[in-house]
Specification:
The structure holds two protein chains of two kinds.
Chain A: E1 4-10, E2 13-22, H1 26-40, E3 45-56, H2 58-73, E4 77-81, H3 85-93, E5 101-103, H4 106-111
Parallel strand pairs in A: 2-3, 3-4, 4-5
Antiparallel strand pairs in A: 1-2
Chain B: E1 4-11, H1 14-30, H2 35-56, E2 64-71, E3 75-81, H3 108-115, E4 118-124, E5 127-135, E6 145-147
Parallel strand pairs in B: 4-6
Antiparallel strand pairs in B: 1-2, 2-3, 3-5, 4-5
The chains are: A alpha/beta, B alpha+beta.
Chain lengths: 115, 148
Amino acid sequence: MSMKSSTRQVDGVTIVDLSGRITLGEGSVILRESVRDLVSKGQKKILLNLADVNYIDSSGIGELVSAFTTCKNQGGELKLLNLTKKVHDLLQITKLYTVFDVKDDEAAAVKAFGK
Amino acid sequence: MAADRVSYTLDSTLETVNNAEETAGRMAAEAGFDDEEIMKISMAVREAAVNAVLHGNAYDPSKKVTLAFERTADDLVIVIRDQGKGLDASRIPDPLAPENLMKTSGRGIFLIRSFMDVVEIRPSKAGTELRMIKHVHGNPADSKEALQ
């Protein structure tokens, strides 16, 4: 039920590997704290790998928006990687798919960040 | 086919939200919906339960959430009631409007309406009743509608 988060660095980009559910409660809090922690440390090129996120609710969608805005407001960039069909469909119907920069190849996603 | 009804009275907690979602998934599976429809129904119920627990009852331990499922030959009918101030759905901003796209909340009712065939929201001083229906065979005669 819960969500796990781990980070790794690739060419100056912080990749956050998320797995589980981003929902009201623990999942949303973990995502929020992970992104805020990175931004506060100056790591502002963030790639959220959602390949193993199998479920997200409206609270989780809100946290993705919040993460995007938090990063952008600090002069950073946040992109999404490897959406599952469920998450992809949810971002489509909420019209957020075009707001986020969504990638499906990690190497290309890393290169897409500004220098 | 005889109607098949079950109802639960639940505390205003996050656990209730998870239980409501799981129960809805089980009910939807038993009603014969496919995996994608089960996901939509259970998510709609999760969002409705979040509204009831968080926005309706505001986690007040003295207030309860009731969750009822009814299976008929044609429909799965789900009703969630809270004991809050009453939700005026007409005052919820359109989450798809450009000025609201980047808001971090306000998508729950929209998702419920997207996933269910009929959604009725009935606010009163005693709380809010949210009634939603999923047609078992996807009856095309009844398009999505939201009644106040």
